Amino acid sequence: MKKTILVTMIHDTSTFSGPVNKYYATIDSLDNFDVDISATAVNLDPTRLKNPKRIKTTTIKKRFLISDFLLMWEILRNRSSYVYMPLAFSSTFLLLVLAAKAVGSKVILHMGDPLYLTIKNMQTEVKQRVKLGVLVWLVTGLSKYIEWILLDCSDYIFVVSPSMEEDYRKITNNKKFIKTVFNYVPVRPEGKLDQRFEEIRKKFKYIFIYFGQIQSQIRSYEKLIDIFSMIKRSDQCLVFLGPDKTRGNFQKLVAHNRASDRIFHFEPMPKNRALLHLEKTDYHIIGPSPAYAIPNKFFDAYQVKLPMLIPDNLEDVKNIFDGLVITYKSEKDLIQKIEDIENCKITIPQKKIETYAETMERFFSETLGFEKR
């Protein structure tokens, strides 16, 4: 009997291509099975999302519901949306899930950063906005209960890191199907190197790269600028590849440290072209991150076998990426590691990390019993 799948995604304008790629990877995986697909996407800025590969008249009377629950808190536009955004997303999903359960559908839920962490980060950002205190308190309380209901209503729950899986097992008393599925959607490196990047590659023996957004909320970019201003070696440089969200503070800091001859910034580029630049660098530097999930940039580095310098408290990353990581304990330790980089041991992992599409296909086949076409 042919099964019917409703694939839906809700996310905000702060997300990169990761959620969209994962959305299409789910549909691609389902193409191998004897199912009907109804794909929908809810986005605050619909112009940023391509048309889904397959769109039908969407009803909730489906056999399975796959939801990608993503709460991105970093770049919300104004303070009213900043407070209400998590509640709006979680409420929308709750209504969708409850409607699906009401007609007997199975619910497969993908959890991004947990609501409680999203709200915690949000509270940190609005500490100085005294007038919003009561609203934040209300949203925090409501979102927590909504998350509990979502977890309780779901038949299958996918999370994005082993630590998150462990926490959710405690919340649900291990009564639920919970599985870690990494946000690893490979993209083929291709395109053409930026001419300025080629010149940098010829000039410096070692290029260290910071790949991702440069944001005021995450101060690691400031520390990295300070660190590379103190590095004594003249054959090493630092490249930032990603959007500058600091309203000019990044460039001011580089100028203040007189480091424009060894610290460079490149605007964001398509993922396949960005990976081509990652391939041509030597080390990826990862600063402290508030994200609960394992950020996609770790998988990007893994894909091109780019060694990573990471804080030593990222246990999930160390366990998953094995010998490809060099850990540092402090800023002083990081400086020593960079200046003595030749003596840092790197082992290219032999084990293969399962991609998102591969994990989902195995789940459809082994757990849900879908038949191949």
From TrEMBL:
Q: What parts of the sequence cross the membrane?
A: 82-109
> Which keywords does the record carry?
Membrane, Transmembrane, Transmembrane helix
Q: Which Gene3D superfamilies does the record match to this protein? A: Glycogen Phosphorylase B (3.40.50.2000)
Q: List the protein's name.
A: Glycosyl transferases group 1
Organism, by scientific name, is: Candidatus Bilamarchaeum dharawalense
